[in-house]
TrEMBL record:
This is Diguanylate cyclase with GAF sensor. PANTHER family: DIGUANYLATE CYCLASE DGCM-RELATED (PTHR45138:SF9), REGULATORY COMPONENTS OF SENSORY TRANSDUCTION SYSTEM (PTHR45138). It comes from Virgibacillus subterraneus. SUPFAM superfamilies: GAF domain-like, Nucleotide cyclase. It holds the Pfam family GAF_3. Signal peptide: none annotated. InterPro entries: Diguanylate_Cyclase (IPR050469), GAF (IPR003018), GAF-like_dom_sf (IPR029016), GGDEF_dom (IPR000160), Nucleotide_cyclase (IPR029787), Rev_trsase/Diguanyl_cyclase (IPR043128). Residues 492-620 form the GGDEF domain. Gene3D superfamilies: 3.30.450.40, 3.30.70.270.
Length: 627
């Protein structure tokens, strides 16, 4: 029988050699060597070490063959082993449990192992019944020396694992920080999770919309009132790791916030296949992993944001440069509309401008998309404009409740010198189609374009006032003269109609000059209702009015003059009549502008001479008709 002293020396010598050569063994290999030596030293048939796995919450065999494991299970009641070890008096180091099997010719002893560092376990020893029992002192010696060995081994292996994890995080961060595409970063994060926890389930709960590949376990974190009660949302809001044991699902979830320097970008959710107790070291590592991932997501987000800013500034700069080129209103709207559609892929863009002289109080400017030519579009534009005249705040909605075919709406007021001049409406059918970045860009674009657009409108109004008669709002005689000259250079023919209000002096003498002006305005309104799109009406002077009909024959002019004469006779108050003279040109080489005017004037004079309230055309002055 080996003495206590020799036993101690042999075990210590063996363990010292193992510690000296620890770098060459894996954890399981080292424990196998330990049990092999113990079998030889203690003359046992089986020496097996079990270590408690905190992930699986059970003892796992670390040494021996499958046969050894089967043999051990035949002797040890593992369902009761935890309670047996807990009931052991481990404080004085004298915890010794002996198991005897009446069915097999073996005795066995279970030695609890509680090293001061690392996981606990137990050493199972079996020996023939005819072999002398190990003394309590020998068992206690084996326990003490093995626990000391496990302490050193656990410390070394944990340090080695810590170095390995640090290298893993370093390599991971090096890769992630070199990427500038968010999708690539998320793929790499998921791949790293699979390497670390191949049997676990995991999700990236991101705080921003991201069109990820369907293969990636990515979800958008929820912000509803109900969601704030969830553990995942708490991790996002507090920036602290959260643990959740789900009794029903019999698993454990850890939620680690994906933090960067400027904020939290989501939450990493790791779900174990069964309930586990996460160690502080593991929680710390997962936290570092999530922080590395969060920093990488933040870097690429800031990079993409900076690219967007550069792109947005370039867009604003280009638009401003074009808008400062003294363009016409239609050209300005065309540029702004193109920039809006290109920047945020809008399907409808409307330009609404306040015009007190318009019937609706506003104009839908030419260049707006087709929806705003519809009745529904005009009603919507009026509703938005009326709101903005009360409250100048812009509107940004991703799920509009206005019963429109468009869910995503941006309505941005055109403000200049503190006054609302109109609004730009930007719309899309899909819900939440426009990003907040697009909204801010559109605000900037509209702000920069408002001055150019307002100036263009004022310029058009000024030009219109120069060429427009203040009373009738028809064109001036000079403008008619210039227009006729231009048309005679380009067209093949044209017709001029001159109108004169019969007995106009009598109207002024009877009703006064104010009513006389009202009569002229009534005639002007009737003329406008009868015009074609290309026709040019003008005030010729005093009570005389005119219309030039591009590319029209003299018969077309006679017919239109007859219609207008009839309308005036029927719908003016006080009732008046018109005399009309019509002339035309068909050869620009033989005719001049003055010739056309002279012939029309002669025809008008003849209409007066033959009895008024009639239409007379040139070269047939002897003929007249009450058309």
């Amino acid at each position: 029988m080996i003495t206590q002293h020799n036993l101690k020396e042999r075990i210590r010598s063996t363990y010292f050699e193992l510690i000296s050569d620890i770098a060459h063994f894996s954890y399981d290999e080292l424990l196998s060597v330990v049990t092999n030596h113990l079998t030889a030293i203690l003359n046992t048939t089986h020496s097996v070490i079990y270590i408690y796995n905190k992930w699986n919450k059970k003892y796992e065999i670390k040494t021996g063959s499958k046969e050894t494991g089967v043999f051990t299970k035949s002797l040890v009641d593992f369902s009761d082993i935890n309670q047996q070890l807990l009931e052991s008096d481990i404080s004085d180091g004298k915890s010794i449990l002996r198991e005897k099997s009446e069915l097999l010719n073996f005795n066995s002893v279970i030695i609890p192992l509680f090293p001061k560092f690392g996981s606990s376990g137990f050493l199972f020893l079996s020996y023939q019944k005819d072999v002398e029992h190990l003394s309590n002192n020998s068992v206690e010696l084996v326990k003490r020396e093995t626990e000391q060995l496990l302490k050193l081994v656990n410390y070394y292996k944990l340090s080695e694992k810590s170095v390995s994890k640090s290298k893993f995080l370093f390599d991971m961060s090096t890769r992630l920080y070199s990427m500038n595409i968010k999708g690539d970063i998320l793929k790499d994060i998921v791949q790293c999770l699979y390497k670390l926890y191949p049997t676990f389930t995991y999700y990236l709960l991101l705080s921003q919309d991201y069109e990820a590949e369907s293969s990636l376990p990515i979800k958008t974190i929820e912000y509803s009132d109900a969601a704030t009660k969830r553990v995942s949302t708490q991790a996002f809001l507090t920036g602290e790791v959260q643990l959740e044991d789900r009794v029903k699902d019999k698993n454990t979830s850890i939620y680690a916030p994906l933090r960067g320097k400027q904020g939290v970008y989501g939450v990493l959710q790791i779900i174990t296949p069964h309930a586990v107790d996460f160690t502080e070291d593991e929680i710390d590592f997962i936290t570092q992993f999530a922080n590395t991932a969060g920093a990488a997501i933040e870097n690429v987000t800031l990079y993409q944001h900076s690219k967007h800013l550069v792109s947005d500034l370039k867009l604003i700069n280009e638009a401003t440069h074009k808008l400062n080129s003294n363009l016409k209103l239609t050209e300005i709207i065309s540029i702004v509309r193109m920039q809006i559609i290109e920047a945020c892929r809008a399907t409808q863009v409307g330009f609404i401008y306040i015009n007190d002289k318009s019937d609706n109080g506003f104009d839908i400017l030419s260049g707006s998309t087709s929806y705003f030519a519809t009745k529904q579009g005009q009603i919507f534009a009026e509703d938005i404009l009326s709101q903005m005249q009360v409250n100048t705040d812009p509107m940004f909605s991703g799920n509009s409740k206005k019963n429109l075919p468009y869910c995503s709406i941006m309505a941005i007021p055109m403000i200049h010198s503190g006054n609302v001049h109109g609004a730009v409406l930007i719309m899309h059918e899909e819900k939440y189609f426009f990003s907040f970045e697009s909204y801010k860009l559109m605000q900037s674009l509209v702000q920069h374009s408002t001055l150019a657009l307002t100036n263009s409108v004022l310029k058009d109004k000024l030009e219109e006032s120069v060429i427009t008669d203040y009373l009738t709002k028809l064109y001036s005689r000079n403008h008619l003269d210039e227009t006729l000259k231009a048309h005679m250079q380009l067209d093949e023919k044209g017709t001029l109609i001159l109108f004169d209000i019969d007995d106009f002096k009598k109207i002024n003498d009877t009703y006064g000059h104010y009513i006389g002006d009202e009569v002229i305005v009534q005639v002007a309104k009737i003329i406008r209702t009868q015009l074609g799109q290309e026709d040019i009406p003008a005030r010729w002077g005093g009570e005389e009015l005119a219309i030039y009909l591009p590319n029209a024959s003299i018969d077309d002019g006679v017919a239109l003059a007859g219609q207008i004469r009839t309308q005036v006779e029927s719908f003016t108050e006080p009732k008046i009549t018109l005399s009309c003279g019509v002339s035309s040109w068909i050869d620009k080489e033989l005719d001049s502008v003055s010739d056309v005017f002279i012939r029309a004037d002669k025809a008008l004079y003849e209409a007066k001479e033959i009895g008024k309230n009639c239409v007379v055309k040139e070269k047939e002055l002897k003929k007249h008709s009450n058309l």
